[in-house]
Amino acid sequence: MSKLLQLHDFGAPGATSFDELRKSAASSGCSSKGGAGKTGCGSAAGPSDLPPEIWEKVKNHPCYSEQAHHHFARMHVAVAPACNIQCNYCNRKYDCANESRPGVVSEKLTPEQAARKVVAVASTIPQMTVLGIAGPGDALANPAKTFKTFELVTETAPDIKLCLSTNGLMLPDYVEQIAAMKVDHVTITINMIDPEVGAKIYPWIFYNHRRYTGVEASKILSERQLLGLEMLVARGILVKVNSVMIPGINDQHLIEVNKAVKSRGAFLHNIMPLISEAEHGTAFGLAGQRGPTAQELKTLQDACEGEMNMMRHCRQCRADAVGLLGEDRSAEFTTEKVMAMDVEYDLAARQAYQAKVEAERDAIAVAKQRELEKLEGETATIKIQVAIATKGGGVINEHFGHAHEFQIYEVSTAGAKFVGHRRVDLYCEGGYASETGIDPILQALNDCTAVLVAKIGMCPKDSLAGAGIEAVETYAFEYIEQSVIAYFKDYLERVGKSEIRHVARGDATIRQGAFTEA
User: Fold this and answer.
1) Which distant-in-sequence residues (6+ apart) come within 8 Å of 44 by Cβ?
2) Which of 4, 75, 147, 507 has an alpha carbon within 20 to 30 A of 137's alpha carbon?
3) Residue 428 DSSP one-character state
4) What is the pTM of this model?
């Protein structure tokens, strides 16, 4: 094995000092405001905001680019079952085919099985551009399996971007190997920088052949996470930091976490809601620890956005997820089915398809800009949220009753901004309204003024109207952001003519647990 990178490597004669590396990392970090010495990076950034070499890394990565997530797919392979820390929000023994949650898998794979699955998926889904290893344990608690999988995939599918997710405990020991394997994207889950806070989240860690508990455990974990982050940034590897928002434990503290990871050069910060249903059997779930509401999450993300652009399109995917964010096609690619498939990896066909997608993205950007220009001169201070039913492609193309989720956009005279998504159970199954009814969907969309859909029936349309939410089919099969802006312009005109009255909306719930349908 090649020599592992350690902190003292940075202090070698003639090498850049660690303080200099920290300053360099901070100047290359994210800023929603741009400015000298800073890249305008983040999930909402475009080619004009980023250095060309960074844009190449993110332009078709669905997690690192909000625009890309409409068009490009990712897959996770479950080759890393072991973990070296215990989190109070995690229970990897829980398994449900309808569940979309980190740590959940239907089957674990060997590196050889995983490599064949990657090629099979890439041959079937040409927009699949990213392979991630995200568990179900920790990728770097299983280094042999993780790196063997990357090695096999690189040999047969060199155009696929490699990613890994880690809790960061072992990260400093593997940065050199990660860089050598050309893994350009690493996600670190960092929930605290204060060990006193960490002691409420992590019961124990296992490090250097010993189990640590309490504040001591969290102190070691935090130091290793931040060191690993700095070492990755010094290698030019893009780092996304995931944080789980746990009300009453780390919600306000995450603002300090945000500042700490930004100062160390993290590319993107993703604050996710705690998932803590009792059925999952997690310590938090069994203790009744609640997750945040939609507006609590948005308020925290907004507070951090002044320091750093935020990822808001995360779906908290399964460790064996396949497809666009928000969809899961893993059932199409079980080991049994993959082994029976005739697989032909056609790189030229994949590149041709992706070039077509890029052209479509350009058209969407032009349409959005043209619509935005129609708002010039508007001085209204109104800001509303609009829900979108979509199957992907950046288009409003989903029937209300068939939507598993709604994408949420905030729109004002400044333009339209993606701010989140809401998972829901299907309203319509087999031509009939679901047994769970419309109420959970109304609760999920309660902070929205309108929902733009491809089609909707009269019953749910009336229910939405009764809740003060306008259902709109006018923009069916049109581009999302262009339509959101157009709807907002029409909304302002109707308010101006007193045809409708602008009403501030309330809070909304975040759906947890497995989907109820089989």
Assistant:
1) 66, 67, 309, 417, 418
2) 4
3) E
4) 0.84
